[in-house]
Automatic annotation (TrEMBL):
Keyword Nucleotide-binding listed: no
Classification of source organism: Bacteria, Bacillati, Actinomycetota, Thermoleophilia, Solirubrobacterales
Family: Belongs to the GMC oxidoreductase family.
Protein name: GMC-type oxidoreductase
Segment forming the signal sequence: none
GO molecular function: flavin adenine dinucleotide binding; iron-sulfur cluster binding; metal ion binding; oxidoreductase activity, acting on CH-OH group of donors
Amino acid sequence: MSERFDVVVVGSGAGGGVVAGELARKGRSVLLLEVGPHRTAADFTRWEAHAMHDIWWPIRMAMPSSDPSTGIVALVAGRCVGGSTTINTKVALRATQHEYDKWREASAPVNDRGEPLGPGDLDPYYERVAEVLGMRERTDWLENTRMVSRGFDAVGAHLEPVISYTDENCMKCGSCLQGCPTNAGKSTQNTYISVPWARGQLELRAECHVDRVLVEQGAGGLEARGVEYTDADGARHTVDAGAVVVAGGALNTPQILLRSGVPNPLIGRHLGLHPAMFVFGRFDEPQDAHRVYPITAHCMDFQRDEDGGFVVEAITVQDPIGFTVALCDENGPMWGRPLVDAARDYRHWIGLLLMVNDDNNASVTLDDEGREQFWTDFQPVEIERREKGARFCRDVLEAAGATRILWSSPATTHMQGGCRMGSDPATSVVDSHGESHEVRRLFAGDSSVIPRTLSANPSYTIMALATRLAEHLDADPHGYLQDQRAVVA
Ligand SMILES: Cc1cc2nc3c(=O)[nH]c(=O)nc-3n(C[C@H](O)[C@H](O)[C@H](O)COP(=O)(O)OP(=O)(O)OC[C@H]3O[C@@H](n4cnc5c(N)ncnc54)[C@H](O)[C@@H]3O)c2cc1C
Ligand code: SF4
């Protein structure tokens, strides 16, 4: 006989970590399955290549589905307990009315009164996340950020401090992408998960790959019964649950639903990439932009599509591998002597990170043998936003005194969509609470449900939506969990 839990959660990042932690705190029996390893602050070092191997997904690529000149986008995500929150830079932004309007137009997610989802619906959940993670404004800029800020002023724009989920133990070491060694950076691993796990309230199984959700024909239609997963030793297991929450991230959740035979043709479609690129300026004096809290400031002046459709973050350069591996100049990707010369000047470069609104034209598919594929289909208006944003970054850096400009090839860390939520099965994969339109007891609880790409960093909104989902599951309006609460110490 297989084990049974109230809820099985697949993936422990911004979505899954919050759903699992909140439900465990409410006394529900929860199994949290994560394909990556369980690492904590004591394991994290600045060793870039090691972190990429140990706690990142191998870099995956989204390929152009039609016009090859629109370029390839590298996809970066965390694969460890805490998911991408373990390696992210912890900038916290709420969705704006502009985003809710886009969501309504795309798939019309609604609140419990049937009204379009809006700020009043998510604000209480944002507050709850802020209470768990702690948030503060990062006004502790170093001189390199202040200098770039003068460049923004000179071109008539405005650089402002970010709000982030980092505490005062942040030593501005710059190694957030390798995992925070001081626990100043709040991931779901060191907050939502670690506390109930240490108290024995949450069953966490790392290095377990969920192959599929077990979907069966029930009296009222298709139902999720549990999941099948493979552990680190290659052994297969099945687990039963009252509800299954898939939260493998926007690249993986669609794959899991496809492998499980969920019959919705929109799975994997409307993926948003929020593509990004670095624009680097070389300054005469050393800047040491790798030894900062990577994102202390951002310029939100062009956030809305009608204002330009991009956000710029300051300041950061990645460590040497990340800096050099994707460096480009007027001749394309750099190599040989020019690349060596740029790397020799490593301490002199300052990076601005440009993130561009996209129109959710990307997709995730599986080929005939079940292998993952990622596709882009950028339209001229999206390319134009990227070019406009890159020109702006160049102007800012030059106004601040940069004597040479380089840039990186496109990448993203903000994949969203692919199982969009909404009120109509014709335009969405899951309903406004994240439950599959076709399979009862099956929920998506991560970035995959976001109907249209947020114009800023998404994790705070993913965590707010996950908090809302945990509350919904615990209220159990359909009797899925049959009120079998765990005995909580
Ligand atoms: C380098 C970097 C910097 C970022 N900076 C910011 C920032 O400053 N602010 C911000 O708001 N956002 C930031 N983000 C984005 C943010 O972290 C993500 O949007 C968010 O974590 C996505 O949440 P998620 O739950 O959808 O996926 P994730 O957090 O990626 O979690 C998904 C988890 O599911 C696991 N998983 C996948 N498939 C399976 C399977 N089959 N079985 C078991 N487990 C599985 C994965 O290994 C992963 O741990 C950043 C991301 C990165 C990578
Ligand atoms: S910069 Fe701060 S938050 Fe980032 S890894 Fe270092 S101590 Fe942690």
